[in-house]
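dude i think i finally got it to work??
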Amino acid sequence: MKKRVIVLASLLFILNLLFVSANFEFNGTVHDVDGVALNGTNVSVTTRDTAFQVVAFESNLTENGWFTISLQDNPTFMHQPSIIHYNETDSNVVEYVGQSLPAFPYIEFSRLGNTNFYVKRSGTVNITAVNSTGGRINFNYQIKDTTLGFPIGESWTASVEEAIIRLPTDRNYSIMIFPQNGMPVGFEWNNFSSTDDYTVNDGSVYYTYNGTTRTLAKQFNSTETLTRLTGYIKVTDIDGWEEFSVVPYLLESGNMTHFEHGALPYNMSSWDRDLNGDSLNETDYFNLATGFYNITVPAPAESATYLLFATAKNTTYYGGFNSVTVSYGQTIPETNFTHVYGLLGDDYSNITLHNAENWQEKFNATTAKQQFLFVNSSNGSISGLSSHVEVEVDYSGYGAMVVTYMLDVSQTESASFSLPLINATGIKKMNIYSQMYSPKKLAMTVSQIQDNNNITLSNFNPGEIDPADDAELEGSDISIAFYISNSTCDVPLPDQSCIIGDLDKDNFNPLSAVIGGGKLSFRMGYGDVKIHYVNVDLLASGPPDAAFDAAPNQTATGTTFDAALRFGSGGPTIYDYILVSVPYSETAGSGLDDSQQVNMSLPVLYDDDWNVIWNTSENGTEGSSLAANQSYYSAYQADWEWLMNGTACVTNFSSEWFNATSPCYIDATNNTVWIRLPHFSGTGPSVTGATTVAATTTPATSGGTTSAAQGGYASVDVSDGIVSTMSIKDALVISLGDLGGGSAGGNVPHQVILNKISSDSVTLLIYSEPIEVVLKVGEFKKVDVDADGILDILIKLNSIDVPHQKADIYFEDITVAKEAVPPAEEAEEVVEEEPEVPAEAPPTAPEETTKSKVWLWILLIVVLVAVGIGYWFMKKK
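look at this
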């Protein structure tokens, strides 16, 4: 049972004030798994009010894939889309369904525009329930996607005798029913991929696959009885207790339980009845002198697993965990707490339980809890925070199992939460989803918990780890784009056709790409550092808040080169793996010689505060040792071992050569090293190789045309201005007029090399003395090529053809203007009007436009996450 976010009520209210209500159309095109438009697909929208009650239902059929639905324009409404495609010859067979989506606020849904939807193969779930005599009974139910966490099918307002739900077959599901006057029972389904028919021995699960449709029939048996759990809490040298309680928690699928709502009532022994239905006047029993307990829990025919927490006080508080699975009619052997430890924290507070004998009364089991405080990036307390927290603890070696606690933080004072935690081990993983902050993921050892119980939450603001002047991250430095996720597009340099939408497209709404259902990858960059999240699931969580050094710290000693770049993220893992780029230079005498072998390794790993948690020179390079000390790395310990031990970077990209066991690729054309990582953690990759030999002569010049082959030379006269199409590594020899006091007089040739092409800029090198010029599309700069204080040439980048590694660049001789070079601090500033250039040169976009787009994207993504969590939260209420 997951997640996720609390509705951004105040934010959405403000946004609503900014938009005038108007009738709107929800439209788009529905495609099958191969991208073919589907005719006759049913597209429907359920409209809900603020109380989450259904107020309208509209539907339409697609024509050649296209649909349009007119929806009410009430700004307080929420709209939930659903897509179903039936077999053309058998209308009872559902072939495809859209991905499971929550209800979205009007303000976002009404601005989706034309959306491309990609349906998935459908599976049918049929749910029924019977009592002890085999008769059908009514029930309520809830189905969750175990990855997304929010409910995707449910019936709360009315009980049903049978439920039929169609679901995408590429996901796993948790099914729970709530029988009338019975205990909730659940079932986890993760086998829609099976092509074999089978029936469980007791007939409760029946699965069929006929080549087209997949059907799961699950019949729940609601029969239950009560069973006794007995045993002792045992601690060496302690003979008696001042306080003693055992609290049973019902575990859902995935061994998850809600800390506030998952505990069973106190004293269920009072429910024991004789054959006549008369009370046996039983009670839960705790012996302070011996540590003996005797409690009652329900034992359903479907079986149930309980997490037992024993808390006891002798001067200080102790705690222990155990787990037990019970079934109808089963006698449970004595369950003793032999792994009992001191509890972390000094927050002595209660676990409040309903009294089973009198539901209006409450019973308090007092214990010690560890408190955690939420703070902002300035270490200030946060108030009014609403969030959902998941805390995973590994108690498999301490009497129980790996368990995940869920909590909801909703308060007006300082934001915090508390949990009972034994002092023998820490937290394996904690995920935090909040309304106004980036999702947070962390692991904590016992000493880390004791040293600092603050949890820092950050606004979504990708940027440098240690910005030199703490300046605001400029919007022009950020790049964000969505890509199709497949073997062709999940590469360092994907083709332009892979881009679904990016930051520079005025008419692109990221929300439409996320809810469309197609497999997406998310690429985010700052400067020359790019992070490509492969097959990212933004419905499950918002984007990680990436932090990275904008440029490598590199050194060159003699003939060796070394570059290090830290990067990391505190967000949860919602993707398959990532690709990260590390830029390098080829500067003569200090840069990397990429014509020779280049090696990459991860010698250092960091925590969220950039403290070193693993150094291979001290801790070794074995993945098993890393996993044993840092549980977050356990899932891919073999991959991390490859990375720590180092690997030679391949020079030709292919899935055969660039993979988990060969995680480094060098793009010599663009001076970039790409690294493949299992997930985005605090790491410091080291790139080593030979140093570029220092230049001893000026590059040679030769004749040719303006479109010379790669590495060739072309000579042109730029006195009247000229546009040249240059390929990567092309050298253009330009003849300039009067160079003032230049030693060679007029008509002096200089060489311009197109050294690098990125998605939005190029880097030029101008000789004799190397001068590096970086230009973005539409930008121009004036350069003094002979250091005499007079600007000699104007260069403007008209356009870039990234797939073919070409650029159109405008050159103009401006020596006759005798324009002096501005002061050093203003050398990059252009204060005069832009000169006339050929018509094809696009105008320079204002910086503020780029920045505003960045924050618009961030706002839309935050709202998307809020919608998913708000949907879950209202259902839980």
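Helices lie at 9-18, 106-109, 446-451, 510-515, 616-619, 623-629, 637-645, 847-876.
im so relieved honestly
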